[in-house]
Design brief:
The chain is an alpha+beta fold. Strand 1 and strand 2 form a beta hairpin. It is globular and about 40 Å long.
Length: 129
């Protein structure tokens, strides 16, 4: 079972990414300053899909409109994807310092720090949701 769950948010041919903060309470965080999808730790007894949906709401105040589709995993992280019919604007919590909508087809030339494994799963999700 996974320890972390996350969600890829898609609208048309764009993906919603957020830039992670670097420090929290003086401690350097994993993937500081990286752009990513919304990910967090699962709670005890929680289903992976429920954790992904909860993390999206906690980090953005967004609630999903369409079903979640499991896309794949990276180590102890499982990623789901969902599509939003309308462009949404998240209200980010403290874990992120900015967000943006990015064209999925241009992610291989993304000019900022991002995990290549996340890019591959985002590309995989495009045809599944």
């Amino acid at each position: 079972m996974s320890k972390y769950a996350g969600i890829i948010v898609i609208h048309n041919n764009s993906v919603l990414l957020a830039k992670r903060i670097e420090f929290y309470k003086g401690e350097l965080l994993p993937y500081p300053g990286y752009w990513s999808v919304f990910v967090g730790a699962m709670e005890e007894g929680e289903l992976e899909s429920d954790a992904a949906e909860r993390e999206l709401f906690e980090e953005t105040e967004l609630t999903i409109e369409n079903p979640l589709v499991e896309i794949g995993s990276i180590n102890d992280l499982v990623l789901f994807a969902t599509r939003f019919d309308d462009l949404v604007f998240p209200n980010l919590n403290f874990e992120h310092e900015e967000y943006g909508w990015f064209d999925i087809d241009s992610l291989h030339s993304f000019p900022y720090k991002i995990d290549k494994k996340i890019i591959n799963l985002i590309l995989k999700s495009k045809d599944k949701v």
